[in-house]
Amino acid sequence: MKLFYYSILTLVLAASCSQEPTMYSTIIPKPLSIKNYRGSFVLNNKTVIASSASLRGSDSVAAFLAQQALQLFKLDIKPGNPSQPGAIILSSIKYKNELGDEGYVIRVNTDSIVILANNAKGLFYGVQTIIQALLPYSQQLASSGSIAMPSVEIIDQPRFPWRSMHLDVSRHFFDKEFIKKYIDILAFHKLNVFHWHLCDNQGWRIEIKKYPQLTDIAAWRKDSTLDMNPCNGPKDQCYGGYYTQDDIREIVQYASERYVTVLPEIEMPGHSWFALYAFQELNCNGKPWKMPDSVSFQQTGPYCLGNPKTYEFLENVLNEVVELFPSPYIHIGGDECNKEPWKKCPKCQKLMKDEGMTHVDELQSHLIKHMEKYLNAKGKQIFGWDEILEGGLAPGAAVMSWRGEEGGI
């Protein structure tokens, strides 16, 4: 009896699983709706792609799909007419405006694949869904040049408008080509923000033309060993690197073509050891620092906030950052700042007295509010880690809470 029961259960489960073709079970994130129909579309080298002239940017999305089809599946999909049999059609949606800027509808019919959206961004995500569905069959496509795609209607839109990944290139430097691959992975999974952590205690990674010392000195360290982890490389060698401004423009453009916004992070007032190693007059004691044998994250010597030259330096850095990144946001860090030096610094203590401050937390808030006002005047909004709440939040700042939900709500 038990054997009969389990046999029936297996058949029921198999039948329920078969309702959603395996080809569409690999889509990440899972779409809002997948409806299956009878029949299939044959994708092969006779397939053409047609984009709507009325939808701005659809030509670029069509070109991206053709390039990916050739690179991943060895399919040579050429431009064609939407009335041709076997066409992939990119077009504007006629109803379902509730899908917003990033939603899309895919209809795989027996004679066409139709991707509909309100704009090119939605079309791009629809194209990524098609690529995701086909990727497990890349060897089959490359060898046979053909595959049958089960007929289906897919409707999808994002749950969250901000979908981001963070990459720290200070502790471990990654070259330009890796950054592009990283952006490809973000776009493939329909993430739309690349949070680029460009400087920290372990190295400065962005060219600032006004301050060549930041890349001549602060981009390089004595060894690549962090926190005694043998995976990080051998000691006693020069380790580092940086991105030229031309590199950054190229990466920002590459990301833009994949509908990814690049959010740069320039750490202040803590996590700034190597910047202060290059500009030692900006630390609280003003004395020369020695290059350590191993750079660890505990060395969070802050900028001296009682020194007017600190603000001049940071403003000049941000002037160049603003010109490189079209993002409406600039991340200025604000986390894990060691505030002990401020308690002993005559300049910082004088500023506190002059401004009526009673706690060093207010010094950090003073810097954050200053930088927010400065960047607002340049059309930018600031982001900071949740420590910027300490001492009072700048009025227009956005908070990224890494220590729990409370700081972000």
What is the count of β-strands?
A: 17
Residue fraction in strands: 15-25%
Mean pLDDT: 89
| Corresponding CATH superfamily of the largest domain | Glycosidases
| Helix-strand sequence | HEEHEEEEHHEEHEEEHEEHEHHEHHHEE
Helical stretch tally: 12
The CATH topology of the largest domain is TIM Barrel
Integer count of domains? 2
Globally, the shape reads elongated
The biggest beta sheet is recorded as:
7 strands, mixed
Question: What would you call the structural class?
Answer: alpha/beta
Radius of gyration: 26 Å
Tell me the helix content: 25-40%
Sequence of strands across the biggest β-sheet = 1-7-5-6-4-2-3
CATH C-level class of the largest domain is: Alpha Beta
What's the N-to-C terminus distance?
55 Å
At CATH level 2, the architecture of the largest domain is Alpha-Beta Barrel
List the helices and strands and how they pair.
Blueprint: H1 2-18, E1 33-44, E2 48-51, H2 58-73, E3 78-79, E4 87-92, E5 104-108, E6 112-117, H3 120-134, H4 138-144, E7 146-156, E8 164-168, H5 176-188, E9 193-197, E10 199-200, E11 203-204, H6 213-216, E12 220-221, E13 239-240, H7 245-256, E14 261-268, H8 273-278, H9 308-324, E15 329-333, H10 340-344, H11 346-355, H12 361-376, E16 381-385, E17 398-400
Parallel strand pairs: 2-3, 2-4, 4-6, 8-9, 9-14, 14-15, 15-16, 16-17
Antiparallel strand pairs: 1-7, 5-6, 5-7, 10-11, 12-13
Helix pairs in contact: 2-3, 5-7, 9-12
Structure characterization notes:
With 409 residues, the protein is an alpha/beta fold. It has two domains: 132 residues, Chitobiase, domain 2 (2-Layer Sandwich); 245 residues, Alpha-Beta Barrel (TIM Barrel). The chain is 34% helix and 21% strand. The chain contains twelve helices and 17 strands. The strands form four sheets. A seven-stranded mixed β-sheet has the order 1-7-5-6-4-2-3, covered by helices on one side. Strands 8-9-14-15-16-17 form a six-stranded parallel β-sheet, covered by helices on one side. Strands 10-11 form a two-stranded antiparallel sheet. Helix 2 links the parallel strand 2 and strand 3. Helix 2 runs parallel beside helix 3 and helix 9 packs across helix 12. The longest helix is centred in the N-terminal third of the chain and has 17 residues. It starts with a helix and ends in a 9-residue tail after the last strand.
